[in-house]
Automatic annotation (TrEMBL):
Residues 1-15, 28-39 have a biased composition (Polar residues). This is tRNA-dihydrouridine(16/17) synthase [NAD(P)(+)]. Residues 121-407 form the DUS-like FMN-binding domain. It comes from Furculomyces boomerangus. InterPro entries: Aldolase_TIM (IPR013785), DUS-like_FMN-bd (IPR035587), tRNA_hU_synthase_CS (IPR018517).
Length: 451
């Protein structure tokens, strides 16, 4: 059942209702690190996927056909027309000329470069890889994020293993935002320089709540380091030719959430994704995403594209979220992994999705660990009933072995093992002179077919 658009069902308290905050816009002292030259590697991306059977990367009409013309856009030098659309809701009375121009740049970027995406695939560690992005775009995703990459490791010139393994894209993988976790301005810029010619923006991860993020001091564990965050974004905006965005979590205090979001915008973020959960909400303590806080961020920052993240289970939840929060788009993470057809509003079988994903993986080299994780999620509803499938998936070490898990499974008599909700033949039993109808099935007539 979809969430109702009331504060009580969005996981929020009544104290948030109709609360409007006035934010201090004074900028703190900026102590940026010096920039260094770092030439991006010109990757030779294979386009073999275009010539293979059944891999139509343009299946979704929203995917731009003339993407080549967008690859070298420099958002800092773009000419902005002062029309009624871009930043139309902004309060121009209290804004300077430069602030109004920046506001229109944000929506110009969102509309012209990102193509006003409404359905967005989240950055997911080891899970939103190229093959999965291709599958998601076929079923309605209009913007995809890469997995979160570790900026320092990604830009390490002494060891290119991590970079070569993580960074995979092609010219049809657009619009695309590349996400990095970083805790230094220069490492973020160094990493971003390597992708700025093949992406539409770079995103600073400020939402990862996992223990590894706490140990490395990045993600949601930078929420107490506002000055450092501002330095990272400001430094990146001054040294990159593509926009910088940020993905955040909320504070329990709405006024602090709003001040935090305003600081990010002031630093130069062109788009914000708000995950309506606290840093502590993870695992068994996840709880509901607070749509009311997201609504208030939207209300207080009308000049900035805002994406909501959290509480999306079914297609109708997307419209409910947009109607309640007034955000520009909705991001899905976990639900996209269990149902990559979410944004198409189509009900697909898990084995159809698994088959299509594996066909893509044949053409786009993908780590077996990624494939296994995706198949476990796709088949999750079936695994309690078909325990042997779980074992087979766990033991698979190649793409061929993975494929066999989604092929027709036969029982010992040669009958197909099909879920009970599919139409299937009645099974005849051997004649038993004592019982009339015996217990043993007759089996099937299977004739070998020669080539």
């Amino acid at each position: 059942m979809a969430l109702e658009n009331t504060p009580s069902n969005t996981g929020v308290s009544e104290t948030h209702q109709n609360k409007k905050m006035k934010i201090d816009t004074d900028q703190p002292e900026n102590n940026m690190l010096n920039s260094t030259n770092f030439e991006p590697k010109n990757l030779d991306i294979s386009n073999q996927i275009l010539s293979k059977n059944n891999i139509d990367l343009h299946a979704d009409p929203e995917i731009p056909k003339n993407i080549d013309s967008m690859e070298n856009i420099d958002m800092r030098g773009i000419t902005i027309a002062f029309d009624d659309q871009a930043g139309s809701d902004a309060n121009e009375t209290n804004q300077s000329f430069s602030e109004r121009t920046a506001d229109m740049e944000r929506y110009d970027f969102y509309r012209k470069v990102l193509k006003s995406p409404k359905y967005i695939v989240a950055p997911m560690v080891d899970q939103s890889e190229l093959a999965w992005r291709i599958l998601s775009r076929r079923y309605g995703a209009q913007l995809c994020y890469t997995p979160m990459f570790h900026a320092k490791m990604f830009s390490d010139t002494s060891n290119r293993g991590y970079y070569n393994e993580m960074w995979k894209t092609n010219k049809f993988d657009r619009p695309l935002i590349v996400q990095f976790c970083a805790n230094s301005p220069q490492s973020f810029v160094d990493a971003a320089k390597l992708v700025e010619n093949e992406a539409d923006a770079v995103d600073l991860n400020l939402g990862c709540p996992q223990h590894i993020a706490k140990r490395g001091k990045y993600g949601a564990f930078m929420m107490d380091e506002w000055k450092l965050i501002e330095e990272i974004i400001t430094h990146a905006c001054a040294n990159l030719k593509i926009p910088v965005t940020a993905k955040i979590r909320i504070y329990s205090d709405i006024s602090k959430t709003l001040e935090y979001a305003q600081m990010l915008v002031r630093a130069g973020a062109k788009l914000l994704t708000v995950h309506g959960r606290l840093r502590e909400q993870k695992g068994h303590k996840t709880g509901l995403s607070d749509w009311e806080q997201i609504r208030l961020v939207r209300e207080n920052l009308p000049q900035v594209p805002i994406i909501s993240n959290g509480n999306i289970l079914y297609f109708e939840d997307i419209e409910n979220c947009i109607k309640y929060t007034k955000v520009d788009g909705v991001m899905s993470a976990e639900t996209n992994l269990y149902n990559p057809a979410l944004f198409s509003n189509k009900l697909k079988t898990n084995y159809e999705m698994a088959t299509e994903y594996l066909q893509i993986c044949k053409l786009v080299p993908t780590k077996i660990s990624y494939i296994r994780a995706h198949l476990f999620k796709l088949f999750k509803p079936s695994l309690p009933k078909y325990v042997d499938l779980r074992t087979q998936l766990a033991n698979s070490k190649s793409l061929e072995e993975m494929e066999s898990t989604e092929e027709d499974q036969l029982d010992e008599y040669g009958y197909k093992i099909l879920p009970h909700w599919y139409c299937q033949p009645a099974i005849r039993r051997e004649f038993d002179s004592k019982k009339s109808v015996g217990e043993k099935p007759l089996g099937r007539s299977i004739v070998p077919i020669s080539d």
